[in-house]
Each structure stands twice: as C-alpha cells, then as structure tokens.
Write a structure and sequence with these properties.
The chain contains 22 helices and 6 strands. Strands 1, 2, 3, 4, 5 and 6 form a 6-stranded mixed β-sheet that branches. By secondary structure, it is of the alpha/beta class. Helix 1 (2-9) packs antiparallel against helix 2 and helix 12 runs antiparallel to helix 13.
Amino acid sequence: AKGELEDLVAQPAVRRWPSGLAAAGGIGLLFGGVAWGTFSDSDSPSPLPSLAVKTEASLLVVPFSNLTSDPEAAHLGDGIAWEISEGLKRIRDLSVFSRPSHVSAAALESDSGNGAGTRASSILEGSVGEDGDELEIAVRIERPWTEDDGEGAWTRSYRIPKDGILSGLDRVAWDIAVELGVQDSDRGSEALVPLGTSDFHAYCDYLQGRYLARQGTPAALEGAIEAYHRALVLDSKVAAAWSALAVAYILLPEYGGPSIPEVAPYAQAAVDHATAPGAQFPEGLAASGFIKWSYHWDFQGAEEDLRRSIELDPFNPVSHYWLARALTSQRRWEEAGDHARAALELDPYSPAAYLTLGLLLMCEEEEGAAEAFRRGLELAPEMHPAAFLLGTLLALEGDLEGAAAEFDRFSGLIGKDPGPFHLYLSALSDSGKISEVVSAFRGLAFFGPTEEAAFLAHLGETEVALARLEEAARSRSPYFLWANALPHFSGLRSDPRFRGILAWAGY
C-alpha cells in the first residue's frame, strides 16, 4: 500500500486524483478511515471571533528568517510565521496582518492605500534554526510607531522538539498574546495552534505547500499540490492539508493552469476528505461551497457552506471572496461588495481578491473595475482570467486599443492566436465584420460558449448569442452562471428566451 501511495505522489501534479481513486479500490482506502486528530476533543471546531469586532491592538507578522543549514528551507520560517499569525487571529482583542514572503517590505510601505498592516501598533519578526531534533526559534516584537528607540523590544528564544512542533508553536503564540496585553497568563485549555500532527516532516511538507500556494503562479500551485500530497502520504491526519489541497486545485485554473472541468474531480475528492465528519475545516467548507456553486449550481448549499466557513474562521479571505463571487452571479451587489472588500481587508496582497472585486464592479457597472484587474495582474502576472476580463471591460468602455493590448496579453499567456479578439474589436466600429466574428468565435475554446455569447450580445447578434448561451447551459459550462450578471446581456434581461435559459440554472 505504501508503494502505491508513493507512486501516486510521483504522478504529474494535476493528474493524481484519478490514479489515487483507482488505487483506493485496491488498498481499501485513499487515506480513508482517517481518525481526524485536529479537532479530536469535539465534534466540530469552535468558531473564531467575529470580523466585526473592533480592536485597538494590531500586529503585523513578517516572514521569519531561515537560519537552518538548508538554504532551500525558506518555507519553514515563512510557514511558522504564518502558523503563529493564524493562531493569534483567534484572540478577540487583536487584529493580525501578515506580509507574504513574495511581497517586499518596500512594497508594503509604499502601498498605503491597501497595506492594512503598515501602521500596525506592533511588528513580529523572528528566525528559525535547528539543532538536531530541535528547532531554535527566536521572536521579537517591536513597536515602531512609538517614541521607543527599539531598546525596549521584547524578545524570546525557544528550543522546540521537532516531534512537538505544534504544541511548541502554541506556547510561542500564547507568550506573544500575553506580551501584547490581549491575554493574561492564565491560558486555560484553549489551543491557539491546533495540534494536527506530530510528524515533523509531514508538517514541513504542508508548510511548503502553503508557502508555494501563496506565490500565485501555476508552477507554484502545482508544487503546492505535490507538497500537500507528500504530507498526506506521511500522515493522513493532517486534516488542514486536505482543505489546502482542495483550494489549490480550485485556484489552479484561475492562475493560468488547467481548465476548471479538468481539475474539478480532483478538487471534489479533496473536499470530500476535508469535510468528512469530525473534520469540517473552515477552508474545506469554503472549497465545498465553491464547488457547489460553480459546478453543481446549488446556490443555497453553496451559500450555507461558505457562510459556515466564515462563521468558523472570519479571517480567511478565500471564503469571503468566493462568497462574493457567488453573490455577484446572483446580482446581490451590496452583500457581494461587503465580502469582496472584507477579503482585501484581510489580505491586501491577494490577486484573486482583486479579481473578485473587479468582477463585481464590472458586473455592477461601477467604477474601479479596471484598477482592480490591473492590481491583480501586478501581483500575479500569469493570472490570465484577469487579463481576459480587463480586455473585455475596456472593450465595453470603448477603449479598443487598451482592450487589444490586454487580449494580446491573455492570448500570449494561454498560447493562442489573438486574431479573433482583434476581429471582434474591429467589428465594434465596422458592423460589416460581425458575420466574420460569428464564424471566428464558433467553438473557440477560450472560456467557452458563455464568453462567446457575451461578445456576440455586445455586437447586437442576439439570436446567435442566445443559441450559444443555450449550449452553455446544456453543457453545464462552469462560466454559464456569469451570464446572469455580465453587463453584455443588459439589453436581454427582459427577453423571455434569455430568462428561460437562466432558469435552467435556477435563476
């Protein structure tokens, strides 16, 4: 059985789940029958504090320096800083912000409009080294916005056994909370850092996956998927890895990887583990909600899962921006805006959160959409959906030169000919070319028939656009749900045929 699982890890990153599911039939499980250890003391996790809670104390956590003998172990310092920050978010009287390792301190300082943590009252930094079977962790809290000259900075050093890494990090998080004055020294039995595994190597693989996933490129996400699989081979009880794996698969198409239909079965398999009885990880519930919305068109079930995820962990930006997308597709603008902006408040450097805000503003026909798409592309240059949407938006606004540049960027990212897009832009000023556009877009698999229908509707080709939308509905195109919100279809909203097509999805 172990050999089969190792063979599974050796599979190409995005093609492991079919092999794994087949292997499961032979060995009786695909990491199944797991005794979920993360929340072993209760049937479900305790909810984290409400996002609405106003706090005065705030902490910016920066990635810890890597002082181990392995120069390739940057993920260890980055991941331990992330784990401590996630634990501190459980403190009601403390606002915690993190700076991802791929975002420079200079960028954080200069981005005053979005860097929620730039004026945090305290900054936590540290380092991670190792000595045999122990980690050497040093932490330092500074308060740079006071008149303190730095000599009063709080520092602590810890030697933590590798087989007790999570309990050790829990102790570090509690010490920091006490020093910040947001908790007293009577800690009780609550754990800020869940004790999900005692396997140090599995935990390191999990942290490496987190580190790679935050970089937001297809190659990094595929590397994250590999790392999560390695962690689960070593210890199938790392419940958080199932949730993170599901999220990585879902994000892969968004950042320029394989298409949504190709990765959907793998994401669903990971979600099934992440939401098994006793697991119910907030991140897993968020992934479940996204799949229910985008693949199964189960709006109510999706909203329940996403809201439950936010209830359990209101500080995860992914849950917020996925709920914002589901609400945007239903034209629930105000609620969607609340969650899109909450996601950016929680993570001002999330490309996917900017993509979500851009989508909302474009569909709502409000200003700021182009700026949001551009910001997402600055943070993740390979995020081809943002380039496509920016080109689409600029075409709607009449900026044909800008639209052409973005469609060229999009086509370059996916390795396709941009000719049909240039023909579409030409037809916006020369109606004699519309028939050529209809032929050029036929079956052109950029995003599918929904996007083809949107372009044709914009050109006034109503009958052909509606026919393409019917194709999208019959084939259950994952982008069909956006037909209810995209501004291209504004002139068709009262059309009985258009309304009938949307009804197939439950609108």
